[in-house]
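// run 5 | inverse folding | seed 20
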C-alpha cells in the first residue's frame, strides 16, 4: 500500500469513527436522574478493572527517567482519583525539580549521544510506527502505533477511569491519539528543504531541515506539558512529531490523569524507544515547569492547557530563549443562520458542545442563533440534549460522564448563577445531577447576552466598595463562586460587574444560546473575544459560508460540522489561543530547525567562464553580423567584462 493511499483511506475513517462513537450514544438513551449517588469506596467493578490493568502491565505507577521506572526522590506520592466515584485508582510519584533535572539530563544525553541519529530518519520513522513497507524493507517490531491500537481497550479504560469520559469516546481518543504516531512516522520521510533563487549569479542559496541527506535537523530536548481533558491525544500530538524529527522529550502530564501517559510510555518502551528519548515526570506542576524553563538544555516547550499557564510559560521561556508552541483556551462561537438545515445544526452543535462533557478547548462556548430560527432551534436542541444519558463512563449507553473535579463543577455553577442573575432562562438542567459526585446536568440556557460570564471573557478587577478592593485572578473559579454567593448573602445584587474582565471558558455541559439579527452582528459577536481557536457555522448558503469563514478570527472553522479535529489538518489558534500548529505537515516544522546555507556556485563560476569565452566568440563574430551582438547582450543581464 502506498503512503498516499494510506492517508486517503484514513481521513474519512478516523473522522467517521469519532463521529460515530459520539452519535451512537446520543441517539440511544434517556436522562438518568434517579440513580443513587455513587460510593467513594472502590467498587467491585473498578477493583476488577484495576487488577486486570495491573496484570496487563499497563497500570504503571512510577515516573519514567532514562528508561527506568522511578519514584519521587522523597517517596512522596499523589492520588489519582476516578472522578465518577471519587475512589483512588492509584498513587503516583509527586515529583519536582530534582527529578525533572534528572529527566532533562537523560534526555540531553540521549540527544547529544545522537542515539537517535545513528538511525537515519527513514529507519527511525519505521521504528515509530507499524506501517506496511513500500519496498522490500521490513518494519521493526513491536512498534508504537501497533501497540497503541492493539491496547485500545485497556488505554480507553484507563482514560475513562482517571478522566471520566464515556468508554466509547475514550477508545475514540486512543484511535485519534495513535493517528498522530502513524502520521508523523510517515511524515518524517517528507521533510523537504528549499532552494532559493539567488539574486547574485555566482552563489546558490538553500534552506535545510536536514543535517545530511538522511538526518533531520531537530530542535533538541523538548518539554511537553499536557492537560487532563485528552490524557493520550494531547501527548501523542506533541511526542509524535518531536520523536519523528529526532528530538528527545520530557512529558509532564496533568497530575489528574498521569496513568494513560505512563501506559503509553510503557508501550513506547516495548516498541524499542531507547533510554532517555522519552521521559515522564509528574507532580508539582510549577516546580517541574520551572525546571524545564530554567534549563538551557531544554530547547523547546510545547504546552496545551489554560491561557493563564501558557502566558506564565511564555514569560519563563524568555530567560533561555526557548521555542514555544502554545495550544491554549478557546471561546468557540457556533453560529446558526436562519437558512441552516435544522437537523444538521442541532446534531453539529450538540457534538461541538457536549463532547467530553463540554470539557474541550474547541467546545462550542456560545451558540449564536439568528432570530428567525432561534425558537425552533432552542426547542429541537433542548430535546436532543434531554436524550443524553449521564452516568459512569463504563455504563452502556452513557454519553456524558462526570466533570473532572469539584472545582470544575463550582465554576460551572457560578457561571450559571451569573447568567440567571442577569436574566437568562434555564431551558434544561442548570444544576448538579442527582448522581452526585461531579456529575452536572446537561444544560441549555436561553436569552444569554454578552454581559454574562457564560459568553464573554472578562477579567475581574474591582468590586464592592464595602469590602474594599477585591481581586479574583484567572482560574480562581472557587473564588468567583464564593463571590457570587457572598454578594447574594450581603444583598449586594446591584454590583456592576460588566466592566469586569475574566477570561474563562465554562468548560462544562452548559450550552448558552445567544440571539442575533444580521450576519454582520454575528461576526462581531463571534470575534468579540481574546480567543481565536475554533468556530462553527451552520448555513446552507455557500457564499455566506465563505464570506463568514473569511471574516472570523479563528484558527479552525467547521462549516455544517461539529467535529473537526483530525491528525492530517493543522490545529491551533489565533490571538490569545496560542502559537504554532499541531497535526498535519505544519506540525512537523515546530520541532525542526531551519538552516540557511549560502554556497559559492563553482559550477556557476565555471559556466560564467565558459560564457565569457562564448561571448568572446560571439563578439568576434559580431564584427560581421550586428544582430548577434544584440542577442549576446540580452543573454548577459549584468555588466560583463569582456575582451574584444
Ligand atoms: P492547566 O491548568 O493550564 O494545566 C495544563 C497543564 O499545565 C497541566 O499538566 C498542569 O499540571 C500544568 N501546569 C499548571 N501550572 C503550571 C505551571 N506553573 N508550570 C508548568 N505547568 C503547569 O489546564 P487544564 O485545566 O489542565 O486544561 C484545560 C485548559 O486546556 C482549557 O483552558 C482548555 O481550553 C485548554 N486546552 C487547549 C487545547 C488546545 O489544543 N488549544 C486542548 C485541550 C485543552 P497539573 O494538572 O499537574 O497541575
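// decoded
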Amino acid at each position: 500500500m502506498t503512503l498516499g493511499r494510506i492517508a486517503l483511506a484514513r481521513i474519512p475513517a478516523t473522522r467517521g469513527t469519532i463521529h460515530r462513537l459520539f452519535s451512537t450514544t446520543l441517539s440511544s438513551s434517556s436522562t438518568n436522574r434517579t440513580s443513587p449517588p455513587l460510593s467513594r469506596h472502590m467498587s467491585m467493578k473498578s477493583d476488577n478493572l484495576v487488577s486486570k490493568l495491573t496484570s496487563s502491565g499497563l497500570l504503571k505507577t512510577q515516573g519514567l527517567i532514562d528508561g527506568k521506572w522511578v519514584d519521587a526522590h522523597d517517596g512522596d506520592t499523589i492520588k489519582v482519583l476516578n472522578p465518577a466515584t471519587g475512589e483512588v485508582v492509584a498513587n503516583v510519584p509527586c515529583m519536582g525539580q530534582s527529578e525533572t533535572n534528572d529527566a532533562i539530563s537523560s534526555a540531553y544525553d540521549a540527544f547529544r549521544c545522537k542515539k537517535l541519529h545513528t538511525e537515519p530518519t527513514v529507519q527511525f520513522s519505521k521504528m515509530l510506527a507499524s506501517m506496511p513497507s513500500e519496498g522490500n524493507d521490513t518494519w521493526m517490531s513491536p512498534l508504537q502505533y501497533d501497540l497503541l491500537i492493539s491496547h485500545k481497550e485497556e488505554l480507553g479504560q484507563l482514560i475513562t477511569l482517571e478522566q471520566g469520559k464515556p468508554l466509547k469516546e475514550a477508545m475514540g481518543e486512543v484511535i485519534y491519539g495513535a493517528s498522530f504516531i502513524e502520521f508523523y512516522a510517515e511524515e518524517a520521510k517528507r521533510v523537504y528543504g528549499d532552494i532559493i533563487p539567488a539574486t547574485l549569479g555566482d552563489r546558490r542559496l538553500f534552506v535545510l531541515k536536514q543535517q545530511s541527506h538522511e538526518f533531520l535537523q531537530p530542535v533538541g530536548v523538548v518539554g511537553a506539558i499536557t492537560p487532563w481533558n485528552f490524557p493520550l491525544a494531547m501527548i501523542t500530538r506533541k511526542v509524535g512529531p518531536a520523536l519523528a524529527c529526532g528530538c528527545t522529550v520530557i512529558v509532564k502530564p496533568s497530575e489528574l490523569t498521569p496513568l494513560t501517559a505512563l501506559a503509553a510510555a510503557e508501550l513506547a518502551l516495548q516498541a524499542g524507544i531507547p533510554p532517555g528519548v522519552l521521559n515522564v515526570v509528574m507532580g508539582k506542576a510549577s516546580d517541574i515547569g520551572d525546571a524545564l524553563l530554567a534549563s538551557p538544555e531544554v530547547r523547546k516547550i510545547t504546552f496545551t492547557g489554560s491561557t493563564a499557564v501558557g502566558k506564565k510559560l511564555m514569560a519563563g521561556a524568555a530567560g533561555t530563549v526557548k521555542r514555544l508552541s502554545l495550544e491554549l483556551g478557546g471561546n468557540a462561537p457556533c453560529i446558526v443562520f436562519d437558512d441552516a438545515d435544522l437537523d444538521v445544526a442541532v446534531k453539529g452543535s450538540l457534538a461541538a458542545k457536549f463532547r467530553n462533557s463540554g470539557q474541550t478547548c474547541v467546545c462550542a462556548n456560545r451558540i449564536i442563533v439568528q432570530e428567525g430560527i432561534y425558537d425552533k432551534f432552542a426547542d429541537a436542541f433542548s430535546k436532543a440534549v434531554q436524550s443524553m444519558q449521564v452516568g459512569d463512563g463504563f455504563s452502556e449507553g452513557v454519553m456524558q460522564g462526570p466533570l473532572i473535579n469539584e472545582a470544575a463543577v463550582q465554576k460551572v455553577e457560578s457561571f450559571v448563577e451569573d447568567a440567571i442573575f442577569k436574566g437568562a432562562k434555564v431551558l434544561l438542567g442548570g444544576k448538579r445531577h442527582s448522581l452526585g459526585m461531579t456529575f452536572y446536568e446537561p444544560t441549555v440556557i436561553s436569552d444569554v447576552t454578552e454581559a454574562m460570564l457564560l459568553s464573554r471573557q472578562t477579567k475581574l478587577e474591582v468590586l464592592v466598595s464595602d469590602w474594599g478592593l477585591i481581586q479574583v485572578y484567572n482560574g480562581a473559579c472557587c473564588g468567583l463562586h464564593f463571590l457570587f454567593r457572598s454578594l447574594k448573602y450581603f444583598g449586594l445584587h446591584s454590583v456592576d460587574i460588566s466592566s469586569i474582565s475574566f477570561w474563562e471558558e465554562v468548560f462544562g455541559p452548559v450550552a448558552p444560546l445567544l440571539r442575533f439579527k444580521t450576519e454582520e452582528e454575528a461576526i462581531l459577536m463571534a470575534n468579540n473575544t481574546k480567543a481565536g481557536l475554533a468556530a462553527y457555522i451552520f448555513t446552507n448558503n455557500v457564499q455566506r459560508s465563505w464570506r463568514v469563514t473569511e471574516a472570523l478570527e479563528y484558527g479552525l472553522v467547521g462549516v455544517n460540522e461539529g467535529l473537526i479535529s483530525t491528525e492530517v489538518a493543522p490545529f491551533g489558534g489565533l490571538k490569545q489561543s496560542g502559537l504554532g500548529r499541531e497535526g498535519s505537515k505544519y506540525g512537523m516544522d515546530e520541532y525542526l530547525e531551519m538552516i540557511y546555507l549560502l554556497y559559492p556556485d563553482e559550477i556557476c563560476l565555471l559556466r560564467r567562464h565558459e560564457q565569457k569565452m562564448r561571448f568572446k566568440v560571439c563578439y568576434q563574430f559580431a564584427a560581421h553580423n550586428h544582430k548577434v551582438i544584440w542577442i549576446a547582450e540580452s543573454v548577459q543581464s549584468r555588466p560583463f567584462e569582456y575582451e574584444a
